[in-house]
Write a structure and sequence with these properties.
By secondary structure, this protein is of the alpha/beta class. It has eight helices and six strands, in the order H-E-H-E-H-E-H-H-E-H-H-E-H-E. The chain starts with a helix and ends in a 20-residue tail after the last strand. The mean pLDDT is 95. The structure holds adenosine-5'-triphosphate and magnesium ion (MG). Adenosine-5'-triphosphate binds next to helix 2.
């Protein structure tokens, strides 16, 4: 046997072992449940990951609700695309960034009104997936009561998936979540002076 053939043979044996382990691990994951997913961290990719899951869910004919907190803009590509889909309910519930509004009392008022829209979806089992985009800020700024939010998440329909995005997710939210990903900021074109690009950033 040549050196190359020997390498190929060892590779095949290693992969067969790996496949057996992976197959056993997949077979042992048998539970079904509505997941709470938190996408946090300072890197780019939190909201766009959530919208990727929205596309997946729609592909399976599922009904999706999206509540966008903080942001006021209604000219994003995701809204233009997804709000046209018959199985999507899309709400832009923000007033703008805190440094734009500069009005804490108004931000709290807006947050509470937005939360009412979110709770309606969290109480409605016909929504298979609910995205609460940038919700973390409402918790970290204490615009919403943390227990109130966590209770609504706990008491949602058992098969409903909820995806929460935003920087600095609180410990309590992460503790409650089933899946938490923290996206690390390694570099961002913005710091190189590049404007937000259509189709990539909005
Ligand atoms: P995206 O919507 O692109 O997935 P995100 O949800 O992870 O981004 P946000 O904090 O919601 O991040 O910011 C949204 C906007 O800010 C996007 O235009 C994104 O490209 C930009 N952005 C995200 N992370 C950074 C960063 N570390 N530095 C500068 N701009 C960023
Ligand atoms: Mg975002």
């Amino acid at each position: 046997m040549t050196e190359e053939e020997l390498k190929n043979q060892r590779h095949k044996a290693r992969m067969a072992k790996k496949k057996a382990l992976i197959d056993a691990s997949i077979a042992s994951a048998t539970k079904q449940k509505g997941l709470l997913i938190v996408l946090t961290g300072n890197g780019k990719g939190k909201s766009s990951s959530a919208f990727g899951m929205v596309a997946r869910a729609l592909g399976h004919g599922m009904k999706v609700g999206v509540a966008q907190f903080i942001k006021a803009r209604t000219d994003t590509g995701e809204e233009a695309f997804f709000s046209k889909q018959p199985k999507v309910e899309w709400h832009v519930l923000g007033d703008g960034f805190t440094w734009d509004t500069q009005d804490r009392a108004k931000d709290i008022e807006t947050s509470k009104r937005g939360w009412e829209v979110a709770t309606r979806m969290l109480n409605d089992p016909s929504f298979n997936v609910v995205v609460l985009d940038e919700l973390t800020y409402l918790l970290s700024y204490h615009y919403l009561d943390s227990d109130l939010v966590l209770d609504a998440l706990i008491n949602r329909p058992p098969m409903q998936h909820v995806i929460v995005t935003g920087r600095a997710a609180t410990e309590a939210l992460c503790a409650l979540a089933d899946t938490v990903s923290e996206i690390q900021d390694i570099k961002h074109a913005y710091r190189d002076g590049v404007q937000a690009q259509l189709g990539i950033d909005l």
